[in-house]
Amino acid sequence: MTALAIGMPVGIERVLLVVFGLAGVLGLFSVAQEGHAGRTVAAAVHAAGALLALLSRDLIILLISWELLTFAAFFVIRTAPSQAPLPGRVYVGASRSADAAFWYVGAQIVGAVFFFVAIVIQSATTGSIAIGSLVPPAQPWITAAILIKTAMIPLHGWLVSSYTAATPASSVLLSAFTTKVGVLTAARLVDWSVVGFPLLSWVGGIVAVVAVACALVQASARRLLSFHIISQVGYMLVGVGLAGFHAMGVTAGLFHAGNHIIYKALLFAVAAIVIHRLGHDSLGRMGGLARHMPFTFVCCIIGAGAIAGVPFLSGYGSKELLKLAAGYSIPMRLLNLATVGTGLSFIKFTYLIFLAPDSSASVASPALAADRPTALLVTAAVLALLSVLFGIFPGWVSGVRGHDFFSPSALWAGTQPLLLSVLLWVLFRNHLIAAVRRHRGERRLFRDALLRVAPPLFRVVLRAHTADVQLALGAVLTVVILLFAVW
After folding, report:
1. With 80 as the cut, is the pLDDT of residue 471 above it?
2. Interatomic CA distance for residues 336 and 187, integer angstroms
3. pLDDT score of 484 more than 60
4. What is the largest CA-CA distance in the chain?
5. What is the DSSP string of 206-220?
């Protein structure tokens, strides 16, 4: 096969091409309204990199698309201001945008090095760089690259820090592509089982549950959404990891990737509109916005219902296909548990922003509220409509026409986790709200646990964590490149 080849995708990848295109246009539209020309150009390159990944027909082009995504996203994140232009409005992030951008690019470069090693092994073994399942010696390397690209816990820090440090409108764009290109790469290249178990499916199922648990303790709207990206990517890996075990797995995983792009971009758009009005993304300082922002409230309900898998919204159809592909396996049982947590998390998300009693900090000043985020409102409207259409016509969108998505048994199976979520909310609502108000976060929880188990070791980890970000990344990248050179 000729190197540097591109071509039109087929099957479910053709649906992804349309979704990538729509997400790129809407994300670019939202970023452009911020009035930063360089960030807008970088956003366009980022979207183009995702489209190139779908069009790629050899490993080199696919790796190039990874790097386009990486360095364009670096500029998008790096140019985010710590303070907004208007007085009193703060872009709340997990870290400074510079630190987050360097963590992002460092993690992606390490993943790209692993990907390159896999390409070298594949080329040396077969003499070809055509896209297809890689030879067994290359499988550990490409799997490591995928786990970094998809932010599987504990390799997730780059995603949470960068998606919350970028400007709110940029988060709409960033949430769409990087991890989904990782899932696409896994669907094309990974076919690795360990003693008969599909490795990616097991990792995806476990991470889906752990990431939901992390999301439930978040007090920041965008950190909560970021952890749910990780959880939902776990769903996708459960599907694509079944390649060679069930023919429906890859279709289900990639269909869920397309659905996820739509409803997660919708939820980030909702968060961005709320941040634009209030100047912060602290869930504990919101409340009572339903009557002030009814359109945004409706969009939030649609997005929350879609990610939770409510029937007739987009997430339901792809989760139904995942159940069909995974059967009664342990990864599928883990996804059912994650679905309960997802429903509970987004009941909390919607309640605290729109339905909780008014907080003194939830009423924006006239200076902040007067400027309407038109691009974000249009983006939210289009994505909400698509979430409904993809939910009503899942067979038409996925190409799986033979399955009865809305049979009584399927609807009942899809509704059971949601009913359990509602029951848990009724029983533990006060505890969940109180946890947000006295937020400790997943970092504090992990820190306390580690201090109890291995204090001396954790002191070393803490010292490494407080080191200069660029220096630490430089050291890590140097070691990786030296090991590759020796190998």
Report:
1. no
2. 22
3. no
4. 66
5. HHHHHHHHHHHT--B
